[in-house]
Design goal:
By secondary structure, this protein is an alpha/beta fold. The chain has helices at 18-27, 44-54, 80-85, 96-101, 106-118, 131-135, 139-150, 176-189, 204-211, 228-237; strands spanning 3-8, 36-41, 59-63, 90-93, 122-127, 159-162, 195-199, 218-221. The protein has one domain (3-237): TIM Barrel. The chain binds 2-phosphoglycolic acid. 2-phosphoglycolic acid (PGA) binds next to strand 8.
């Protein structure tokens, strides 16, 4: 399976941040290696211009969230169809920051993921337990419930990202054994061809060890995706696949 290394820029990046894309392309010697997939999800304002300018260099672009409807009276929202129109290939749905800041439920996430598939794009469906849930020994139960509630009934391809909430932006990561346990569990609930990403404080120093774990098929990278100097070694740490 080909690894997917996805950068989630969150609410970071103005037009000038294209210099980081150009720097990444330069580090790739002009084009991303074809034995792994490289995705950047910049703020929605940048998706169309980045996709138009850089898609030839084998970097893909995606959205960070979308509305479940195709169009309509939803001021400020963006549909999956709009991301497709802008040249996106993926849309992240159900990130824990969306679940926490905007009260998104599993049912909301499922509807968004279905909308992404209907638009012909691939959803990256995020799940993960809080620190309290892990301490209470409930990580697998929580992740299992989120998976059951958030993944649409489909034969299309989607991606699952396991991101423990307490590991996001904190510099903390689960042990390799804990990552392996959750990823094996998610695999037992999903098809064999579905890529499972780990996310939460992935950085150059820990990427190789995490990406070598069975059933970790890539990474969803926040802070360390903003600078090409950090993101490039993470991309290259992924095992080669086809
Ligand atoms: P982080 O964020 O890499 O900064 O921890 C990951 C994410 O939220 O996708």
């Amino acid at each position: 399976m080909k690894s997917l290394i996805a950068g989630n820029w969150k609410m970071n990046g103005l037009a000038a941040a294209k210099s980081e894309i150009e720097s990444l392309i330069a580090k790739f010697d002009g084009s991303a290696p074809d034995d792994r997939d490289v995705l950047i999800c910049p703020p929605a304002t940048l998706v169309a211009s980045f996709a138009a300018e850089y898609s030839d260099e084998a970097i893909q672009f995606g959205g960070q969230d979308c509305h479940a409807n195709t169009s309509g009276a939803h001021t400020g929202d963006l549909s999956a169809e709009m991301f497709a129109d802008a040249g996106a290939a993926f849309v992240i749905v159900g990130h824990s920051e969306r679940r926490a800041d905007h009260g998104e439920t599993d049912a909301d996430v499922k509807a968004k993921a279905a909308a992404v598939l209907a638009a012909g794009l691939t959803p990256i469906i995020c799940v993960g337990e809080t620190e309290g849930e892990r301490k209470a020994g409930k990580a697998l139960e929580i992740v299992g419930n989120q998976l059951a509630g958030s993944i649409p009934d489909t034969s299309d391809t989607y991606v699952v990202a396991y991101e423990p909430v307490w590991a996001i932006g904190t510099g903390l990561t689960p042990t390799i054994e804990d990552i392996a346990e959750v990823h094996d569990f998610i695999r037992s609930k999903t098809r064999d061809d579905i890529r499972l990403l780990y996310g939460g404080s992935v950085k150059p120093a820990n990427a190789q060890e995490i990406l070598a774990v069975t059933n970790v098929n890539g990474a969803l990278v926040g802070g360390a995706s903003l600078k090409a100097d950090d993101f490039h070694p993470i991309v290259m740490a992924a095992p080669s696949g086809s």
